[in-house]
Amino acid sequence: MKKILPGLMLLTALSLHIPVAYSQSMDTDEARHNTSQSVANKLDLNVASLAELQTLPGVGVSKAKAIIDYREQVGPFLEVAQLTEVKGIGNKMLSKIQSLVKVN
Hints:
The protein is mostly helical. It folds into two domains: 1-41; 43-102, Photosystem II 12 kDa extrinsic protein (DNA polymerase, domain 1). Helix content is 59%, strand content 4%. It has helices at residues 4-40, 50-53, 61-73, 91-97, and strands spanning 43-44, 101-102. The chain is rod-shaped. The termini are far apart.
């Protein structure tokens, strides 16, 4: 009995750690997939429609129109930070949406 107990303890310990390690590797793979997906799903400020721009947090009809008016009058956005030049969008708003938009 004394020889069996350490073996059972070892098997129990191993069986508890294998799912955790597997779960961690799955989380890492899933995080990589989500990151690549989020980059692909960013709105391009230079082609986004009025409806698409309104999906951004804090952007309603008037701010979406202001973004479109800006790109029509000034030209395409060269960088995301340029959004602060749009009426009604400041640094606080930019920090909320900059991870959701891109410029091509």
